[in-house]
Amino acid sequence: MMNPTSFLKFAAIAAALSALTTFGVHFIEFQAATFEERLLLGRHTGYVFQKWMVIFHCLLVIVSMFGAATVAARHNRGLAALSALFFSVFGVAEMTRMFAVLAWLSPLKEKYLAATEEPVRQILKLQLENFGQASAVLFLLFILAFSLGNLFLGLALPRIDKADCWMAQGFLFWSALTFLAFGNDFWEIAALNPMLEANNKFFQPAFRVAIGWWLWRKSRE
Predict the structure, then answer these.
(1) Rounded to the nearest 5°, which phi and psi values hold at 115?
(2) Where are the domains of the chain?
(3) Which residues are within 8 A (CB) of 43 and not within 5 positions of it... i.e. 6 or more apart?
(4) Cβ–Cβ contacts within 10 Å for residue 192, how many?
(5) pLDDT digits over 20-43, tens only?
(6) pLDDT in tens, 40-73
(7) What is the C-alpha separation between 27 and 13, in angstroms, rounded?
């Protein structure tokens, strides 16, 4: 049976690994400008692999953030529990989105490519085009839940120990950035995009490494 010390070390390793998968999530892109090009993405091995990597990334994040919530629960169980809850919602929302691509969207694309009757192709095309809206709903839930998870974690951590204080501020800063990303899905302010992109590609992996270091340190206390 895994004891609390072992779990925190496990969570620390998950946090460090999630820093690596963050690069894969945000730096690997598959360009498809036309509807016809998007149809063929499901046949691309790298595209399929990336979807599975996102799922693995979500699992790593859930484990690492539950480790952080375990530390926070020593000081504020209620806020720590809320944080763990919203990180769970984040993970389920994003994994559902990825599984929908793999198990629903990709087979639907194959049906479209195999269809010979035009009415059938039009019906399938409409379903394919509407998938983006359903995916956007899950993506908004994912961003909101992640923002709330960081917010409650930042509020739950004490400000006595210097490392805890820095981590609390880091979680609150991360929360502010992701709340901004959530809002910008509606505002569509182009000037915010470089900052949000920098958060995804640079701050996230750096802070995930910091989380891993902090959790390992806490496992030894």
Answers:
(1) -70, 145
(2) 4-219
(3) none
(4) 15
(5) 999 999 998 888 888 888 889 989
(6) 998 999 999 999 999 999 999 999 999 999 999 9
(7) 22
